[in-house]
Design goal:
The complex is a heterodimer of chains A (about 120) and B (about 110). With about 120 residues, chain A is mainly beta. Chain A has one helix spanning about 100-105; strands spanning about 5, 10-15, 20-25, 30-35, 45-50, 55, 65-70, 75-80, 90-95, 110, 115. In chain A, strands 2, 4, 5, 6, 9, 10 and 11 form a seven-stranded mixed sheet that branches. A four-stranded antiparallel sheet of chain A has the order 1-3-8-7, with no helix packed on it. In chain A, a hairpin with a 6-residue loop joins strand 7 (about 65-70) and strand 8. Chain A is globular. Chain B is built from no helices and eleven strands. Chain B starts with a strand and ends with a strand. The chains are: A mainly beta (about 120), B mainly beta (about 110).
């Protein structure tokens, strides 16, 4: 397994366009998280899945944002009608549900998708 | 929302110096993790502390969890240029099921 993969690495889009990002977690990890990070800030939680179930969504995630994890494997994050304020690094992470392993290995993050809305 | 405050936000030191980074909150955490992030990459776990008062060492890095499980510190001895990066603390809420809240980070630069 090559770790958590995110695609694309960079995306430049015009305001008002829709964008979709993909995350492929480590195959045996059943938890998947999406975070957003802006310059000079730590990652902010957006949403997370256990297998295919979306268990929690942050209030940061407006109606324009939707995330899916069909079949509990890869996940997609879609932003509709992008705004300049959506410009950020979108990070995906995965982890094992086993608490002991989570404490030992933590989240495994992908390299992120950097979104620029112009 | 549990807020984690990190200080200092920026630190520039000479190689060989010692430093301490602090992570504070008014909330109690089940566990607290420290991550290091390099530009253009995702954070990488350094350590998890779980028990109040716990001290963990990772080579030249020493991590401490406060007795009340509300705060933590990271001490680096004899810093090296390879230690340069963004250090993030992340707290797992009580009953948080592994969902963590990150601090703003401490950006460390070690000058050769």
């Amino acid at each position: 397994d090559t770790g958590v993969s995110q695609d694309p690495r960079h995306k430049i889009t015009k305001r008002g366009q829709n964008v979709t990002f993909r995350c492929d977690p480590i195959s045996e990890h059943n938890r998947l998280y999406w975070y957003r990070q802006t310059l000079g800030q730590g990652p902010e939680f957006l949403t997370y899945f256990q297998n295919e179930a979306q268990l929690e969504k942050s209030r940061l995630l407006s109606d324009r944002f939707s995330a899916e994890r069909p079949k509990g494997s890869f996940s997609t994050l879609e932003i509709q009608r992008t705004e300049q304020g959506d410009s950020a690094m979108y990070l995906c992470a995965s982890s094992l549900a086993d608490l002991e392993k989570f404490y030992k290995y933590g989240y495994t993050f992908g390299s992120g998708t950097r979104l620029t809305v112009v | 929302t549990q807020l984690l405050e990190q200080s200092p936000q920026f630190l520039s030191i000479q190689e060989g110096e010692n430093l301490t980074v602090y992570c504070n909150s008014s909330s109690v955490f089940s566990s607290l993790q420290w991550y290091r992030q390099e530009p253009g990459e995702g954070p990488v776990l350094l350590v998890t502390v779980v028990t109040g008062g716990e001290v963990k060492k990772l080579k030249r890095l020493t991590f401490q969890f406060g007795d009340a499980r509300k705060d933590s510190s990271l001490h680096i001895t004899a810093a090296q240029p390879g230690d340069t990066g963004l250090y993030l603390c992340a707290g797992e809420a009580l009953g948080g099921y592994q969902k963590v809240t990150f601090g703003i980070g401490t950006k460390l630069q070690v000058i050769p």
